Amino acid sequence: MPALSRRSALILGGVGIAATAVGGTGFFVNQRLSSGTSPTTPSGSDLIEPAEIRSVSGALAVDLESSPQQVTIAGRDVRALSYNGGVPGPTLRVRAGDTLSVSLRNGLADPSNLHVHGLHVSPENNGDNMFVTVAAGDSFDYQYELPVNHPPGVYWYHPHHHGFVADQVFGGLYGAIIVEDPDPIPASRERVLVISDITLDSTGTIPSGTSMEKMSGREGDLVLVNGQLTPSMTARPGERERWRIVNACVSRYLRLRLDGQQLSLLGIDSGRFEAAQEVNEVVLAPGNRADLLVTGTAGTSVLRAHTYDRGRSGGMMMGRESFTAADVIALASFIVAGDDVATVAAIPGQPVPRDLRTATVTARRELIFAMGMGGNMSGDMNGGMGGGMMSATINGQVFDATRVDTTVQFDSVEEWLLTNTSPLDHPVHLHVWPMQIIEQSGQPVKNIMWQDVVNIPARSTVRVRIAFDDFSGRTVYHCHILDHEDSGMMGVVTAN
Ligand SMILES: [Cu+2]
Fold first, then answer.
1. Which of 336, 370, 398 is the last residue of a domain?
2. CA–centroid distance, residue 154 to ligand 1 (Å)
3. Which among 21, 85, 234, 356 is least surrounded, fewest beta carbons within 10 Å?
């Protein structure tokens, strides 16, 4: 099977081709477009990165305004939601020990707030406080003090007001946060790739999800990189690039491949590996991030999202029976040409990650993530899924901001068994404190794996350990399929 030429990659990434067979192994399906529409900009335009704002002398102060804006997405004029006029919002670059101050103005018609996803900062007061409501038209000043030993890596920000999260993120509200390395990792170029998905109707408006879409977790028709449809990147052979990848999709899992190129994974979320790992693919659940090194090999490669099976509905209510989509989606092209570049310097060794497998555990508990009929067909459930037909619960309960579900002892290590009884995967996110994955489906994990979004496959279990240190206070854990979170699959945890 011949390699995809740049031209065919552009065509495949473009419009109007429903499906093109590739080598008989399957179908390479073009991104779906809403019927009756066609983008005005050809794909393959250069990747544009979000504006960047860097901390200076230990401080970064930024004004963020969320508002409905006319923006260009996938080459079309679209009415979307935006931070500071862009989709994504600006990239915030900070260092361990910095103070990040964000003055959020909510220019939306609905309540909102801000979550700095993955940052190890206080959840109290004007920190990463999930109980803050910023009403339409109001402002709120957040201040985040990063510890001096804050892990470097890729983080992100997005709204987190219960009941509105999926709509606001799907609408375009997300941006990257980079915590720089104390010792730089040599790379010829750094790129921020915020991957999101979106659906546009014929008028360039983002439709609100149907109740069926919300039940399964909505997936947009278009998968974008920095708001662009199949942009292109160029490099020279031998160049080592550093890609900061964010999965900002509301529900879509990304099984990313860049065949033909050498990929080396520095870490996932705040979990930096002791040594970079050579990989063929990277799977990111909604909310996960990858810190990836790409060393250029001459030729054109296509960054693709391959199929990922996140389960089956098994129920008559679901819009789709299976989420094993046949589609392989082209996200971007990577064109490596020109003279070879001299080999770049070696990657400096990274600290040995903390390992809680030998820690003293003060408490063990189980969280059961379940979906099902709510047992109340009258439509007055708290779930907010419409019609009151579906429940998305943790330990049998939907979210209640006035209830504390889990009280942990500050400065202790706990072991949590995360159990998913439902036929769909749930990516579980705990704020403030990252989780070390120690067991998957009853099998011990050999490597030291730290993540802040941990996928619990359908009808499966994952065991994690958590060190509730550095910050006390009240925050949340929830499913990062944001439609599930909005429907109630979220709980409150207090460390004190
Ligand atoms: Cu879920």
1. 336
2. 23
3. 21
